[in-house]
Design brief:
Chain A has 113 residues and is mostly beta strands. In chain A, 0% of the residues lie in helices and 53% in strands. Chain A contains no helices and 11 strands. In chain A, strand 5 and strand 6 form a beta hairpin. Chain B has no helices and 11 strands. The chains are: A mainly beta (113), B mainly beta (113).
Chain lengths: 113, 113
Amino acid sequence: KAGVTQTPRYLIKTRGQQVTLSCSPISGHRSVSWYQQTPGQGLQFLFEYFSETQRNKGNFPGRFSGRQFSNSRSEMNVSTLELGDSALYLCASSLLPGNNEQFFGPGTRLTVL
Amino acid sequence: GQQLNQSPQSMFIQEGEDVSMNCTSSSIFNTWLWYKQEPGEGPVLLIALYKAGELTSNGRLTAQFGITRKDSFLNISASIPSDVGIYFCAGQPYAGNNRKLIWGLGTSLAVNP
């Protein structure tokens, strides 16, 4: 079956703009988690969604938000972009929340100029 | 946020050599996971461990869940060029209702053919 898909794969924005990233989980997976990956910080957890509800949240400012739709697809939004938001944003899906075997998409590479 | 201590940070080895890397935590974990990430892709799950002392193999890869529940190691035998990538450990803390995975910063592996 198809893996986790993320769109777009690459994005260039300027400071102050906002961006929306999309993630489609593996068919049948209902939990979606988002991570920010930067070279020095590794994978930093943003949030997890299950059944259209945010179940867990990392230590990121309110500019980072997300949502999940009834078909389990998820979006994350970053408003008022800052240079430090440049990173690879990864989406991971799993069958259920707390199911540790997460499957990752290829990521969206965001560059903020 | 909380992170695991993963070492070494990087390795440069000759093809055919064995590789060992490990992760340690100050607190008890009830799950250990090992992922591999190649350039331009998201992490791929290699091995999942759920019991203290558990030793699991996946081809040339072997991982163990430490009996103290505070560490795990990954061994790669007879390395080949396609083993190149960044290897991440991740774990779920034993205590609390928070089901977030905690991640190491990765071990970057380079293999000289």
